[in-house]
Design brief:
Blueprint (H helix, E strand, L loop, with lengths): L8 H12 L11 H34 L1 E3 L9 H11 L4 E6 L5 H18 L3 E7 H7 L4 H4 L2 H4 L5 H9 L3 E6 L5 H17 L8 H10 L4 H4 L2 H15 L2 H4 L2 H18 L4 H22 L5 E6 L16 H8 L4 E10 L5 H9 L15 E3 L1 H7 L8 E2 L10 E2 L1 H4 L2 E7 L8
Parallel strand pairs: 2-5, 2-6, 3-4, 3-5, 6-10
Antiparallel strand pairs: 1-7, 7-10, 8-9
Helix pairs in contact: 5-9, 9-10, 10-12, 12-14, 14-15, 15-16
Length: about 425
């Protein structure tokens, strides 16, 4: 990559000014000694500028070395990228695949290509979605369209993914505490009643009825169920969890804790600031339960980029699912974030502006018209200064202005040039 492409014009102007400002306006009026002093000052300035230029050039060379052009989305992974993945996945039984927006069809298509590689060449035979933990624990691959969110299960871009999962017998799981699946809607209250009766547990007479009302109205539970009744649900769940018989049933302990957290989210009355930490914490615990219940299995984890940030630095310090999962399961996961560049709503001049801005991740790409894979993990190993550097990026689209340490948040960054929105099947 040419040095001229690595530095903005403003940087050159600032450096040139540093030299010019020490040059006298009336050279013919000065003597030999003064001239020698001025020349020495100029040479010192030039040395500093050369040092800065060389440092910047070396830094960008390290990033360039770890930036790999990908193929078109239909056959995305190159042999070079597969080698990078091979070297990083030898001791990893969990691979996170994130997306910048749930409604970006191009992110979905790109992630599907990585799923194919992980299943066919690396032996990952289970995939956990950011979807209903309880429902998918039982129903797995049977009712995709009612158990998974529609932007995946009912989109044209998702069709190839689910056909592939079915063809290769990849088991679908969920880790989300939000009880949104069709299976949960029809079965949770009955199964909960059965397990409680089986263990002769006495409850508030309205508990099961309130549970059913909550499940069937959870998107507006604060108003439909009511704050006082939601608190009754929390109190009853806590009482059940203290029962000795229930405590021995690890699966139902996890279901009940997950259920309780969903009720607690409703008690926030749609306060995102309060709900996100509750949700991320429980999703981390649900995924931890699944992974550690089946230690011989290798899992792909399908979710939004914001949930899988793997360190406590930046956007939601210590609150993300990814960070909390790693705290309990160090060294077993690899995190790949995806982002689509040229989305229909983004004007070309905006993309060009981002690309010319050395504070934006797009600045590191040779062009925004190709697909790229950046090995951010290796960049930090080779140049530790990047553990502290912050950039603007497109990996959490809900907040375009976010400036944070993307290289530290994820092990790899995937940029898809041609973006497209989800198209729902009619």
């Amino acid at each position: 990559m040419a040095l001229s492409s690595l530095m903005s014009r403003s940087v050159y102007r600032r450096m040139l000014f540093q030299v010019i400002k020490v040059w006298p306006k009336r050279l013919y009026l000065i003597g030999y000694n003064e001239l020698a002093t001025i020349l020495k000052r100029i040479m010192n300035k030039i040395k500093i500028i050369l040092f800065i230029l060389i440092g910047i050039n070396l830094t960008f060379a390290q990033i360039e070395k770890n930036t790999y052009q990908l193929n078109s989305v239909e056959n995305l992974l190159t042999d070079d990228v597969k080698q990078v993945l091979d070297s990083n996945l030898n001791d990893k039984n969990v691979v996170f695949l994130g997306e910048s927006n749930h409604y970006f069809g191009s992110d979905l298509l790109a992630k599907t290509e990585f799923v194919k590689f992980l299943v066919l060449e690396k032996g990952y035979k289970d995939i956990a979605f950011e979807s209903d933990f309880f429902g998918l624990y039982f129903d797995h691959n049977n009712n995709i369209k009612t158990n998974l969110y529609p932007f995946w299960s009912r989109s044209i871009q998702g069709k190839e993914l689910f056909e592939f999962l079915s063809e290769h017998n990849v088991t679908i799981w969920g880790f989300d505490n939000q009880m949104t699946s069709g299976y949960t809607y029809h079965n949770f209250a009955n199964q909960l009643s059965h397990i409680l009766n089986e263990n002769s547990i006495d409850l508030d007479k309205d508990f099961i009825e309130l549970t059913e009302t909550f499940i069937k109205n959870r998107s507006d539970a604060y108003n439909v169920v009511g704050k006082s009744n939601l608190q009754i649900l929390v109190n009853e769940i806590e009482r059940i969890l203290k029962n000795e018989k229930i405590a021995k049933n690890k699966l139902w302990v996890q279901f009940l804790k997950s259920y309780k957290s969903d009720v607690l989210i409703s008690l926030t009355n749609n306060s995102t600031q309060q709900a996100i930490p509750i949700r991320d914490s429980q999703m981390a615990k649900n995924l931890d339960f699944i992974v550690n219940s089946m230690p011989d299995k290798k899992f792909i984890v399908w979710l939004h980029n914001s949930h899988m940030i793997k360190d406590e630095y930046g956007t939601q310090s210590g609150q993300t699912m990814g960070f909390q999962f790693i705290e309990e399961n160090p060294h077993i996961s690899y995190h790949i974030a995806f982002s689509s560049i040229n989305m229909p709503y983004r004007k070309p001049k905006l993309i060009k502006k981002y690309s010319n801005d050395d504070a934006n991740l797009l600045h590191f790409l040779p062009t925004t018209q190709k697909n790229y894979f950046i090995d951010s993990k290796e960049i930090i190993v080779e140049n530790p200064v990047y553990q502290q550097k912050e950039f603007e990026g497109m990996f959490v689209v809900d907040d375009n202005k976010i400036k944070t340490n993307w290289f530290k948040h994820y092990d790899a960054l995937v940029f898809i040039s041609r973006g497209e929105d989800i198209i729902f099947v009619e």
